Amino acid sequence: MDPWKPYLQGETVQSRDMKAMHQELASGEIFPLFLHNIRASGHEDIVVPIRGESRAVLPLLGERKFSIVFVDGDHRYDAAHSDITQGMELVAPDGVLCGDDLDLQRGEIDPAEAWAKKDEDYIRNAKTGRLYHPGVTLAVGQIFDRVAVWDGFWAVRRTPSGWQPVEMAKPAVLLMPEHLQPASIRLTFEFTEYLKQVGIL
User: Fold this and answer.
1) For residues 159 and 178, is the Cβ–Cβ distance under 8 A?
2) In 96-112, which positions are buried (b, 16+ CB within 10 angstroms) versus exposed (e)?
3) Is 94 helix (H, G, I), strand (E, B) or coil?
4) Which residue blocks in the chain are alpha helix, DSSP H?
5) Residue 123, CA distances (Å) to 41, 74, 138, 140, 172 in order
């Protein structure tokens, strides 16, 4: 579920990468590319794209019906808070609510700095020098006591006693569809496969 339209504002759009993303979203070409990637992945039969704003769509999906709900939307505080709280309603017992872009947790930031910049997409933390999304950090930290987090990916499980961090090992290798892999990754994979075939690995 996504609106597939521009959402970045202000200074965030000034960086080269963000400007390119903003222009691609404005062009209307991202949604057809998404559909292409779903077809290329071979999962067209199980992916149902829903185009719309989360505040309008999420309440229509029904309560406690989903084993996994993944939140990766607007990084501004109000939007992130809304997506997470509405997502919580969708998660079935023992299901998982997870998301992306939690680069720093509540204890790693200056709260005053984060609240002052809660509607900026991406800022450099004065305390650590690391980039993070203040709205996401504030929303996750305000809603949950603790979450499990790996490289910005966070997860909690609905239990009878409340939301608990998901305990699982960080994956050693992330796989992506071959047509999206940079040539260097494909060559590394092919070389690794060759080493396995000749008995070196």
Assistant:
1) no
2) bbbbbbbbbebeebeee
3) strand
4) 16-27, 30-41, 54-57, 77-90, 111-116, 134-143, 183-197
5) 34, 15, 13, 17, 29
Tell which phi-psi region holds residue 101, choosing left (phi > 0), alpha (psi between -120 and 50) or beta: left
Give the tokens for residue 148: 């499990």
Tokens of 164: 């608990």
**91 in helix, strand or coil?**
strand
- In this predicted structure, the answer to whether residue 1 has a pLDDT above a threshold of 50 is yes
- All residues at 6 or more sequence positions from 101 whose CB lies less than 8 Å from its CB, including other chains: 72, 75, 133, 136, 152
Q: How many residues does the chain have?
A: 201
> In a 3-state reduction of DSSP, which class is residue 130?
coil
Residue 167, token pair as written in the block: 């305990």
Is the pLDDT at 186 greater than 70? The verdict is no
Find out whether 94 and 158 touch, Cβ atoms under 8 Å.
yes
pLDDT at 194 > cutoff 90: no
Give the C-alpha separation, 111 to 139, whole Å. 12
